[in-house]
Amino acid sequence: MATITLTITDETTGGKxxxxxxxxxxxxxxxxxxxxxxxxxAEVEAYNRKLPEYYRGLVQPGETEQTLNGYxxxxxxxxxxxxxxxxxxxxxxxxxxxxxIDNIQAESLQQMVVINPNTSISFIxxxxxxxx
Length: 132
Hints:
The protein is an alpha+beta fold.
């Protein structure tokens, strides 16, 4: 079974790309929920490895300030991936963002998706998302 690496983008409602993250999947069949989890886990792992001043991700960690460069951490600390993931699921269900897969809007967390190296996945944020 070959792994598939995709570049997932964040876009504004106007189509401007604001962030990109590379995600590797072990299987070509996945769910929308698994895409969100893989994306949040990758962001948190990358942040926690370096602990930079700014966190750039799908959901804003608690105790941060939103800036043009991302979410400014009040103190540099590791981010909890599980809290970020649960916040992202909640935000998705409350229409805080939506996901386009090959320019078609995902309809539910359980929706099955077949991906390949050419699959395009975009997260469109509608409101700032605050997490843990």
